[in-house]
């Protein structure tokens, strides 16, 4: 038995004796990092980890790899978070990997993002879990390699954790790893099994599969148990513009793409139309079938009002707010969004939106220096993002209402889109109202649409709307937990501050 | 923002008015939170010890530094 409050289980790399130097290095760094706060025990597999746990009475448990270096004071920093707050059950910090030239490549993580963890083991080092909770959920199980064992432990612990905290400081330099945290190719299949068990426990209708393009990441394939009516609310003024060289009615193009390309069976489309929607476009919409309804809107232009009118006229339990200047790209978009929207802990789900030429228009919204910003705006569609955050579903401060799925009960509880924001920021405000109510916001790249941005209205931002969003949500936009303080450039592209070795 | 629900609701639809009133309540609460946070921040800053005033020696050194940078710049 030990008296140290933290136990670090150090995964040995290979055969006994082959990594003595690496283990000694990690031991030395733990001694510098903790000043007696932690004991370190070398383990080779899940059963030896379980045995080491049984032999110690530490109150907090973490994992490290042989060769990982903790920065001086790392454990004290984490301890200061968990010691002062009895509701924190898990705490994790940022990490870095050492490049061959000796420079450090930092990975600055988002605040707690359960929807990302299911597809990418982003939490990594240094993480501490409350021992009592780990024991409650069954301890360390032998489910595969060390990475899969850790993922399994983390999923089971965080399912029941009261609070998961993130310390936005690099506290560990990892011995191995690349710019995108991922599983080893051989770990993907057992990790899918572990994630599937987790999905069953938390009641999410999906199955885990290997990521289509990036080896070592996962994606969730929807397996929905229920198929509620989804009402797609499309506010429109009947704008026409050239799309791929052809003059097109945006609303007809949008609704046609929804009806023809969506594989989800239970849809209605509610077009909220200004009087400016001409008779030819009305006929075109009527010809698309009985699932399309036109709701008249005879007031001066007001995006939030129009959406609220459409939502109230809709009959579905799930709403999709969809701009008329969008076009469905991938057939399974509604299922990919529903998988998250039906989770009672989620309030809003956003899609990945691309410009006509496949550059990124939207993959989530972050708060940058007090203003909302679109990460990777205008960058190529295959941009992986910082730590791969453009490749996998993740939690964000907000998502755009150009394509936003939400349950009706959430929409009504928080008062719909705020009519104090006639044109801009009503979506940011909506998502922040949901977060205030304790609900998560998810952006998923598995739902992809084209967005011919600002075709239907001016792209200008009214100053009074910017002032009001700052008055309501200034703190949230300045201290966005999903963006963090480590990206000093003002352009929302997750450009990290350099890290001095 | 003026807390006047009538300013945003010029219609007789009770469902729309209900949405607007709920939004107003949350919006006002959020603004109040912002005000409290600013007050806390100001109070914290007021109780922080003021930074020491630069002494005569500090000012002379700063001026010498500026002079040195200026002549180095000119020499280039």
Record keyword descriptors for this entry.
heterodimer; A: 501 residues; alpha/beta; Spore Coat Polysaccharide Biosynthesis Protein SpsA, Chain A; 2 domains; 10-stranded mixed β-sheet; 8-stranded mixed β-sheet; 24 strands; 27% strand; elongated; B: 76 residues; mainly alpha; 76% helix
Characterise this structure.
The complex is a heterodimer of chains A (501) and B (76). With 501 residues, chain A is of the alpha/beta class. Chain A is elongated, with a radius of gyration of 24 Å. Chain A folds into 2 domains: 6-198, Alpha-Beta Complex (Spore Coat Polysaccharide Biosynthesis Protein SpsA, Chain A); 230-478, Spore Coat Polysaccharide Biosynthesis Protein SpsA, Chain A. In chain A, the strands form 5 sheets. In chain A, strands 11, 14, 15, 16, 17, 18, 19, 22, 23 and 24 form a 10-stranded mixed beta sheet that branches. In chain A, strands 1, 2, 3, 4, 5, 6, 7 and 8 form an 8-stranded mixed beta sheet that branches. Chain A has 14 helices and 24 strands. Chain A has helices spanning 20-34, 46-54, 74-83, 114-117, 131-136, 146-160, 188-202, 250-261, 279-286, 303-313, 333-341, 408-413, 426-436, 463-478, and strands spanning 6-11, 38-43, 60-65, 69-70, 88-98, 104-107, 127-130, 163-174, 206-210, 218-222, 230-236, 240-243, 246-249, 267-273, 292-296, 318-322, 326-328, 346-354, 360-362, 366-368, 371-373, 394-395, 403-407, 440-451. With 76 residues, chain B is mainly alpha-helical. Chain B has one domain (14-75). In chain B, 76% of the residues lie in helices and 0% in strands. Chain B has helices at residues 5-8, 14-47, 56-75. Chain B is elongated, with a radius of gyration of 27 Å.
């Amino acid at each position: 038995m030990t008296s140290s409050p933290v136990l670090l289980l150090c995964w040995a790399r290979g055969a006994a004796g082959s990594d003595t130097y690496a283990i000694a290095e990690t031991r030395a760094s733990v001694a510098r990092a903790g000043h007696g706060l932690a004991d370190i025990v070398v383990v080779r597999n899940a059963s030896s980890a379980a045995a080491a746990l049984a032999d110690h009475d530490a109150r907090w448990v973490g994992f490290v790899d042989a060769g990982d270096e903790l920065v001086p004071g790392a454990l004290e920093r984490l301890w200061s978070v968990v010691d002062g707050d009895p509701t924190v059950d898990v705490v994790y910090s940022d990490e870095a990997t050492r490049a061959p030239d000796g420079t450090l490549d930092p990975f600055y993580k988002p605040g707690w993002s359960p929807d990302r963890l299911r597809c990418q083991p982003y939490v990594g080092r240094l993480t501490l879990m409350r021992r009592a909770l780990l024991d409650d959920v069954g301890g360390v199980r032998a489910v595969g390699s060390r990475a899969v064992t850790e993922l399994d432990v983390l999923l089971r612990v965080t399912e029941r954790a009261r609070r998961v905290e993130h310390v936005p400081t690099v506290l560990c330099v990892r011995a191995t790893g690349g710019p995108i945290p991922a599983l080893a190719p051989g770990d993907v299949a057992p990790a899918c099994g572990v994630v599937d068990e987790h999905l069953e426990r938390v009641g999410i209708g999906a199955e885990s599969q290997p990521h289509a393009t990036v080896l070592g990441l996962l994606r969730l394939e929807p397996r929905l148990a229920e198929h509620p009516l989804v009402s797609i609310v499309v506010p429109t003024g009947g704008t026409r513009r050239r799309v791929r060289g052809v003059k097109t009615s945006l609303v007809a193009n949008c609704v046609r793409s929804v009806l023809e390309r969506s594989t989800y069976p239970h849809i209605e489309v509610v077009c909220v139309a200004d009087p400016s929607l001409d008779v030819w476009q009305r006929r075109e919409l009527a010809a698309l079938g009985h699932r399309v309804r036109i709701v008249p809107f005879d007031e001066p232009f007001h995006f939030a009002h129009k959406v609220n009118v459409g939502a109230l006229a809709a009959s579905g339990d799930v709403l999709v707010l969809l701009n008329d200047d969008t076009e469905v790209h991938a057939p399974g978009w509604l299922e990919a969004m529903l998988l998250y929207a039906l989770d009672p802990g989620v309030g809003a789900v956003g899609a990945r939106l691309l410009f006509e030429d496949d550059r990124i228009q939207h993959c989530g919204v972050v708060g940058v220096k007090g203003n909302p910003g679109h990460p990777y705006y205008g960058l190529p569609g295959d941009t992986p993002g910082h730590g791969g955050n453009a490749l996998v579903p993740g939690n964000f401060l907000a998502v755009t209402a150009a394509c936003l799925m939400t349950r009706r009960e959430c929409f009504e509880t928080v008062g719909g889109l705020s009519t104090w924001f006639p044109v801009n920021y009503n979506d940011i405000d909506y998502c922040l109202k949901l977060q205030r109510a304790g609900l998560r916001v998810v952006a998923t790249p598995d739902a992809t649409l084209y967005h011919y941005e600002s075709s239907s209205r001016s792209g200008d931002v009214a100053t009074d709307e910017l002032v009001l969003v700052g008055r309501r949500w200034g703190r949230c936009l300045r201290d966005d937990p999903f963006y963090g303080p480590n990206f000093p450039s003002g352009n929302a592209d997750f450009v990290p501050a350099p890290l001095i070795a | 923002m003026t807390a006047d629900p009538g300013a945003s609701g010029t219609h007789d639809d009770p469902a729309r008015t209900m949405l607007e009133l709920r939004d107003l309540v949350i919006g006002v609460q959020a603004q109040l939170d912002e005000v409290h946070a600013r007050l806390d921040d100001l109070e914290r800053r007021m109780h922080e010890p003021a930074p020491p005033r630069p002494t005569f020696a500090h000012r002379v050194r700063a001026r010498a530094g500026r002079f040195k940078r200026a002549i180095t710049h000119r020499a280039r």
